[in-house]
Amino acid sequence: MQSTDTELAIDAVQAGMDVVRAMSGEQLERTRKGSADFATAADIDVERAIRSVLRAGRAHDTIEGEELGKSGGAGSRVWLVDPLCGTRNFASGAGDYCTNVALCFAGSPTISAVGDPRRGLIYWTDGENAGVRNEDSDTPLSPSAKNRIIELNADEPWDVATSSLLRDRGLREWMTPRVSATTLALAWVAAGHRAAYVNDGDLRGSVHFAAGIALCQGAGCIVTDLRGDDISTGVGLIVAADHDVHNELRHRISSLGVL
């Protein structure tokens, strides 16, 4: 019997997580990708494991991964793969990281799975519902702002909205900002562990963010660009647990005069 797209995404992420855990703690060779960016052997091996599952289940779909590029058909179904988001955390032996798989229809991420190898959790959405799988048990995701923590991106380009927010004393009185350096933070918003996430990059078609964005939308989070418009504009990203948090962040960003 053929697996559903959602179960296939979960299976692919599980295969990637198995590789991550097997390689955790090893001294891995690093391949430089830019002035400050690098990949490890784990990034590549994880992506290969994920691709193998996806290719076996959907032979004619396109797969686009961070490390191994694009392959497969030319249809409207595209799997975006970020094998190890938080490579620097993983390589340092400290901090969080995740494995992301998203299925896009005509460019829009809809179905996704986000794996947390350190805790053995897989966050998933079928486009309408969202949950977290712990072994064979699924629990629905429920966004909440009660923890009063927001995540701010600290990668380039972060000298516009997020750096200004970090200097905003009023923000620190209202919420507690954090920088975790992994898109696992998006899953935390969907699960109620974070109140919001803010990023000022152009994230359209991003292998890093597609899975988290789809997950948050499936969980019922408020997902817009920095102006409160559709994220297809490419003007950053606000993901909030509720309308009150979203409106406050929009107001603060607008008042900073950075857009």
Report on the structure:
It is a single chain. With 259 residues, the chain is of the alpha+beta class. The chain is 33% helix and 28% strand. The chain is built from 8 helices and 15 strands. The protein has helices at residues 5-23, 41-57, 87-92, 161-166, 169-174, 184-191, 210-219, 243-255; strands at residues 30-32, 38-40, 62-65, 69-72, 77-85, 98-105, 108-116, 121-125, 130-134, 137-140, 149-152, 176-178, 196-199, 222-224, 237-240. The strands form 3 sheets. An 8-stranded mixed sheet has the order 4-3-5-6-7-8-9-10. Strands 12-11-13-15-14 form a 5-stranded mixed sheet, with helices on both faces. It has a two-stranded antiparallel sheet with strand order 1-2. A hairpin with a 2-residue loop joins strand 6 and strand 7. It is globular. The termini are far apart. The relative contact order is 0.13. The mean pLDDT is 91.
The mean pLDDT is 91
What is the 3D shape? globular
Helix content estimate: 25-40%
> What low-confidence regions span 5 or more consecutive residues with pLDDT below 50?
none
Spatial separation of the terminal alpha carbons: 50 Å
Number of helices, where a helix is a run of at least 4 consecutive DSSP H or I residues: 8
Residue fraction in strands: 25-35%
Counting helices, strands and paired strands, the structural category is alpha+beta
From the alpha-carbon coordinates, what is the Rg to the nearest angstrom? Answer: 17 Å
Strand order of the largest sheet: 4-3-5-6-7-8-9-10
Order of helices and strands: HEEHEEEHEEEEEEHHEHEHEEH
Quaternary status: single chain
Number of strands: 15
